[in-house]
Amino acid sequence: MADVLASPPKTSPSEAGPRQADPVGTHHEEGPPRRDFLKLAAGSFAAVGVGVVAWPFITSMNPSADVLALASTEVELAPIAEGQAITAMWRGKPVFVRHRTAKEIEEARAVPQNRLIDPATDQSRVKPGKDQWLVVIGICTHLGCVPLGQKPTDNRGEYGGWFCPCHGSQYDTSGRVRHGPAPANLALPDYAFTSDTKIRIG
Amino acid sequence: MPEGLHESDVKNPVLRWVDQRLPVISMVQREYGTFPTPRNFNYFWNFGALAMISLAIMIATGVVLSMQYAANTGLAFDSVERIMRDVNYGWLLRYIHANGASMFFIVVYIHIWRNLFYGSYKTPRELLFMIGVVIFILMMATAFMGYVLPWGQMSFWGATVITNLFSAIPVVGNSIVTWLWGGFSVDNPTLNRFFSLHFLLPFVITGVVFLHITALHITGSNNPLGIEPKGPQDTIPFHPYYTSKDSIGIVVYLLVFALLVFFAPNMLGHPDNYIPANPLVTPAHIVPEWYFLPFYAILRAVPNKLGGVAMMGGALVVLFFLPWLDSSPVRSMRFRPIGKIAFLLFTANFFVLMWAGGKPAEQPYILIAQIATTYYFAYFLVILPLLAKFERPLTLPESISRAVLKHRGGGPLPAGATAKPMEKA
């Protein structure tokens, strides 16, 4: 192998017309010339090498360990009266915790599925037996604005949920998108009830 | 002369010694001194030089501003206020930098307008034009990241909306956005990397500008008539004719720049960006900087997320195909009666998009933006290809010198000034 690698520069120092000028290549009539193989092999190794070296640079831009460590938040539900909502902070994002009224739950459940942009039942968006508590990530699924509707004085849109002031998306009392341009319902964070009046998000 | 040295015409012995070993003086003399340039440029041909000046001003002010700025979410806003209040001439440097971005875009938009009107994108200058589009896109990225750095409300929410554009990409969209952010929302890692890239990209732009100029000096400049120079009687040396013409443009440019900086430094900005960033409250009305508004209007005109993002990207990508979409052999719109009207409508339509992009996302603005978006794309994809087939252009002049001497021969001074190279030829 060593003499193969060493010989071509000696025998053909010029770059022009390697096949004709290369005496090493002319010795092998069958199959692709040895130089093509060497070029291909060296090229593939270089490509793999570039990939391996690039990977740490690329992944260094992904969330770091300290960012991932701040991944859970506890919320006390007892002070939230019926009809009220609070905004908790989780992973730098707002989480809407809404204590829904019976009328709001009723409205959310009465909607036929075929009228929804992103069909999902209201039951699938709350924990069983905790129908009054709606917990959603308060970020519009269009381009990431925080929708209005946490305060009773806010514009909640036609469906009584949330209204995004950036591009006009509207959500209902189950946090489902009812009017575009947002393509999806407000996302549900991973959360669990640690007691009747407390949840842990994340 | 020892062997292997460059043959130099420089008289000064020291400069000659340098030029023989590194022929930069010969190069400048060749490319900016005697460089044969069409004799009929109008003032629209100032804007390439003005864009270079803008880039230099942005880099100069940016470097000193970065010495005072702190790229940390807890410090950024206050460090910018400190620049405004405490740093010597900090207010001046920051206002030059902020308004310099606007000046840069004004100049580049006029430069692109000139290109489209006089058909400079056509063969043999296709690649020159495409490199220019790359510079324009790099400028947009740089300006966007720079606007995030003061960490005001518009900074934060602009960054949120624009980075979320990538979430429209099917399957991998959300992973890409998390990677861009370095977290789960726009936060400290995002601010840090935007500062790093905002510092880097202007130098990348400088590199691509050199490619742009190298390509320009292969083909030479287009001119208002859109016909190639046929000999020395059609050209004049770049210096002193166009160095002096560019100087006049630079003086006017600096006048406008100074007016903005000293009398209306915040006219083109948003008051909301003097409110520190708050991830829990979105401003009632998010508007990007004025130079992004036409593209923002296209984004909002489509009631579908992926569709809107694709159309907005497409509005830029379509430019790369322009040299082949417009196959009319006549370059200058001066000689294209229908093309001229279609292009002037396109220009007006661009301003309609700009206006609609600054309005809230509601009717009738959405409908207006939709009509304007349709015309934007129709101009490139339907009108230009059809005109190339069916339009009957006016007769082109025989040569640049013929046309110039016929139209401009009246006044004694221009006639004398332009006649000299003619006599030599």
Automatic annotation (TrEMBL), chain A:
- Report if keyword tRNA-binding is assigned: no
Topological type in the membrane: Single-pass membrane protein
Bias class Basic and acidic residues marks the residues at: 25-34
Question: Which controlled-vocabulary keywords does the entry list?
Answer: 2Fe-2S, Cell membrane, Disulfide bond, Electron transport, Iron, Iron-sulfur, Membrane, Metal-binding, Translocase, Transmembrane, Transmembrane helix, Transport
One annotated GO molecular function is:
metal ion binding
Localisation:
Cell membrane
- State the CDD domains in the record: Rieske_cytochrome_bc1 (cd03470)
Domain (Rieske) spans 102-200
Which EC number(s) does UniProt give?
7.1.1.8
Q: Where is this region: Disordered?
A: 1-34
What main location does UniProt list? membrane
* NCBIfam families, per database record: Rieske_proteo, TAT_signal_seq
Subunit structure, interactors included: The main subunits of complex b-c1 are: cytochrome b, cytochrome c1 and the Rieske protein.
Main function? Component of the ubiquinol-cytochrome c reductase complex (complex III or cytochrome b-c1 complex), which is a respiratory chain that generates an electrochemical potential coupled to ATP synthesis.
The entry sums up its family as follows: Belongs to the Rieske iron-sulfur protein family.
Q: What is this protein called?
A: Ubiquinol-cytochrome c reductase iron-sulfur subunit
TrEMBL record, chain B:
> What does UniProt give as GO cellular component?
respiratory chain complex III
Report residues binding a ubiquinone. H217
- State a single Gene Ontology molecular function: quinol-cytochrome-c reductase activity
Subcellular location(s) per record: Membrane
How does the cofactor attach, per the note?
Answer: Binds 2 heme groups non-covalently.
State the UniProt keywords alphabetically: Electron transport, Heme, Iron, Membrane, Metal-binding, Respiratory chain, Transmembrane, Transmembrane helix, Transport
Per its UniProt record, what SUPFAM superfamilies does this chain match? a domain/subunit of cytochrome bc1 complex (Ubiquinol-cytochrome c reductase) (SSF81648), Transmembrane di-heme cytochromes (SSF81342)
**What protein name does the entry list?**
Cytochrome b
Q: Where is the Cytochrome b/b6 N-terminal region profile domain?
A: 14-225
GO BP, one example? respiratory electron transport chain
Membrane-spanning parts? 43-71, 92-112, 127-149, 161-182, 194-213, 248-268, 306-325, 337-358, 364-387
UniProt domain Cytochrome b/b6 C-terminal region profile: residue ranges: 228-398
Its annotated function is as follows: Component of the ubiquinol-cytochrome c reductase complex (complex III or cytochrome b-c1 complex), which is a respiratory chain that generates an electrochemical potential coupled to ATP synthesis.
Q: InterPro entries, alphabetically? A: Cyt_b/b6_C, Cyt_b/b6_C_sf, Cyt_b/b6_N, Cytb/b6-like_sf, Cytochrome_b, Cytochrome_b_C_euk/bac, Cytochrome_b_N_euk/bac, Di-haem_cyt_TM
Q: Which family does it belong to?
A: Belongs to the cytochrome b family.
What is the required cofactor set for this protein?
heme; heme b
